[in-house]
Amino acid sequence: MFRTLLVSSAALASLAAPAALAQSEADIPTLNLSASASVQMAPEYAMLSSGVVSRAESAQQAVRENARVMNAVFAALRRAGVEAGDMQTAQLSVSPVYAENRTNNQVQRDIIGYEARNTVSAKVRDTNAVGQVIDAMVGAGANNINSVRFGAEDTEAAMNRARREAIASLLARADLFADAAGFELCGIRAMSENGYTPQPVYMERSFAMASDSVTPVAAGELTVTATVNASFCIAD
Q1: 170 phi, psi to nearest 5 deg
Q2: Are 142 and 68 in contact (CB under 8 A)?
Q3: What is the 8-class DSSP label of residue 44?
Q4: Is-contact 61 68, C-beta < 8 A?
Q5: pLDDT recorded at residue 48
Q6: Are residues 63 and 158 in the same domain?
Q7: Complete DSSP assignment for 78-115
Q8: 147 and 62: one domain?
Q9: Number of domains the chain is built from
């Protein structure tokens, strides 16, 4: 019986210790701050989203016409230097086309044809050739240019630069708070990083065939952003 009581007392003490520690840590005054930094970098490739939209009286006719033109678009991409592994079908659909007839305040929808859509996502590794690739696709029959998105394969070096700048800004801000408020910092209790994504440059539906020149496309720069959070303990 005595041994059982000893064991129970030890167990209670072990359970109480973390609670007391948590309570003492919760009572420590802290300063919570966050800082962000952005770094610019040149894009390394462009992703083109484009394809063919075809309409016909029957679904079969729409699909056949779409396939004929889309095969020409794929061939144009290959001639423009885009590798087969850098092409991927992004959308393939067939849907009815409706016309609305209003009679006596009632709307009736009638099928007047069918529409076939085929969209390809193509990766252009030479950012200086994007305009030429667009022209080649349109010349082959592509009539639905959705977007151009610029990106980079390796953003880690730029991200590390952004992290260092964000941490330097965070520490400087902590010193400023301490100096302005008249307290001393005793260290960093915790530090974390928010999720990040390099922000690509988008160009949406902004292309038209130029009669005597290549379609102009500006690659611009990518923005890589890092956000760092920290909790500083304040000395008594």
Answers
A1: -65, -45
A2: no
A3: -
A4: no
A5: 95
A6: no
A7: HHTT--GGGEEEEEEEEEEEEEEEEETTEEEEEEEEEE
A8: yes
A9: 2
In a 13 Å sphere around the CA of 174, the CA atoms on its Cβ side amount to 26
Give the domain extent around 160: 29-43+154-236
- List CB contacts of 14: < 8 A, sequence separation 6 or more: none
> Is residue 158 domain-shared with residue 203, that is, in the same domain?
yes
Domain boundary residue, one of 120, 151, 182: 151
Identify whether residues 59 and 137 lie together within a single domain: yes
Per-residue tens of pLDDT for the chain, all 236 residues: 333 333 343 443 444 445 444 445 667 899 999 999 999 999 999 999 999 999 999 999 999 999 999 999 999 999 999 999 999 999 999 999 999 888 777 888 889 999 999 999 999 999 999 999 999 999 999 999 999 999 999 999 999 999 999 999 999 999 999 999 999 999 999 999 986 666 665 554 434 444 456 888 888 889 999 999 999 999 97
Residue 119 sits in the same domain as residue 212: no
List, in sequence order, every residue forming a beta bridge with 148; answer none if it has no partner. Answer: 48, 203
* Torsion angle, alpha carbons of 145, 146, 149, 153, to 10: -80
DSSP 3-state assignment of 204? Answer: strand
Residue 23 phi, psi dihedral angles, 5° rounding: -65, -40
User: pTM of the predicted model, to two decimals?
Assistant: 0.70
- My answer on whether 144 and 197 are in the same domain is no
Apex 172 CA angle, 171 and 176, nearest 5: 115
In a domain, 7, yes or no: no
User: What φ, ψ does residue 43 adopt, rounded to 5°?
Assistant: -70, 155
C-alpha 143: how far from its chain's center?
Answer: 26
72 lies in the same domain as 130: yes
Residues 180 and 201 in one domain: yes
Residues across the chain: 236
